[in-house]
Amino acid sequence: MFGHFGYQVSPVIQQLGLGLFIVAVGLSAGPRFFRMMKTSGIVFGIISLLIVLVASVTTIVVSKLFNLSPALSIGIMTGALTSTPGLAAALQATGDPLASVGYGIAYPFGVLAVVLFVQLLPRVLKVDLAEDLKKKSGPVRNDESPEVMTIEVTDPQSIKEH
Fold it and tell me: How far does CA 128 lie from the centroid of its chain?
């Protein structure tokens, strides 16, 4: 919206903001990422390549069908995939700020699609997420594991007496 009215952000500030965003995401997702890569990295790698391939083909088809500029098309693709690093690469490769416009248009729909997918897929597949979470989380327990209990003190005076 600000760009429409002629306001511009310095490229230094753009790069700083982008860098901070990517670092923050990396710090929060990093430990899980490396654990996941050890257990099922190949499967997720293949899925990732498939997603990028389908997104690229779809982008090319839609771009040709609606006669969109390459920068706008790439921006729409990176926004739909919610890929901020992809936007940075698109801006650098095209040198056209129109990529940011495409990104801004498609990003909300990309986020909404992920949220809907995560909410609806378990219902469609009839997966009980609560039961699945019980199976997957927490340490493995056996007969020698300590018992977990919660103790609530209702009389603070009894603590002082003992």
Answer: 23
Backbone angles phi, psi at 7, to 5 degrees: -75, 140
* CA 132 to the chain's CA centroid: 22
Two structure tokens written together for 59: 């982008």
Tokens of 30: 């990093």
Q: If DSSP codes are grouped into helix, strand and coil, which group holds residue 139?
A: coil
| pTM: predicted TM-score of the whole model, two decimal places | 0.61
Residue 43 near residue 71 (C-beta atoms within 8 A): no
Is a pLDDT exceeding 70 seen at residue 137? no
In the numeric block, the tokens 């090319």 are attached to 60
d(Cα 42, Cα 60) in Å, to the nearest integer?
27
